[in-house]
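Thread: quick sanity check before group meeting

JM: Hey all, I'm pulling together slides for Thursday and realized we never actually wrote out the predicted structure for the chain we discussed last week. Dropping the sequence here so it's in one place. If anyone has concerns about the input, flag it before I start.
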Amino acid sequence: MGDFRFKQFALSHERSTLKIGTDALLLATLTDVGNAQSLLDIGCGCGVVAFCLAQKLSARTQHPLIYGIDPDEDSIAECRDNASRFPLLAPQCFHFVPTRLQEFVPSAPGPFDLVVSNPPFFGNDLKPSTTARLKSKHRDGQLPFPELLDGVCQLLHPEGRFVVILPYIEGEAFHRMACERLHGVRRVFIRPTPTKPFHRVVLEYALRPVAPLVEHELTIRDAQNRYTPAYAHLVHPFLQNSNP
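JM (edit): ok, ran it. Output follows.
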């Protein structure tokens, strides 16, 4: 399969449970790292979200603390290989651990300024056909939404942010659940083309109340199947060709 090449780095994703795709790029590009010094990527796969955010962090500091956790050992091994050749930060900045969130919480190195996740999101609907897809995309027995929220609430710094990407319908259910414990900061509703319904939503939360919830929409491709200016602007710092 070979590496996936970004503008400033390349990642291997051959062994991880989920390959590099639009969801990961949406989460990374729509996440504002602010003044974060520490990052946790829950369900990191090959580390694509962590490394894209590491590019953003490297413009602000050369010594961030970046953790990624995933129960799949092959994915974590690939993360570590990717970290060893990441050109923007020293390998010592990265810590990838083969574990579930539920086991990570008690031994975590302290609160994180930024927590992100592209979690397993299928519930009672049709499960993926392969074991790898099941592990990466189905939350039954892996990472139920209440347990994800439990972990985030324990690991997030009081001034930190939590950002997650989900399918639109699952995201609406998650948002209702999350607002019982967190404060909504932003919701970005995403559609693949102008004529199709929303299919993803990126949700951002804080532990403490913030300004009124901000909501906006993003369309990925126009009627001619080209990236829209808004999406091209988002991915331009990362993709070699941001308007194919």
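AS: nice. The mean pLDDT is 91. The radius of gyration is 17 Å.
JM: adding both to the slides.
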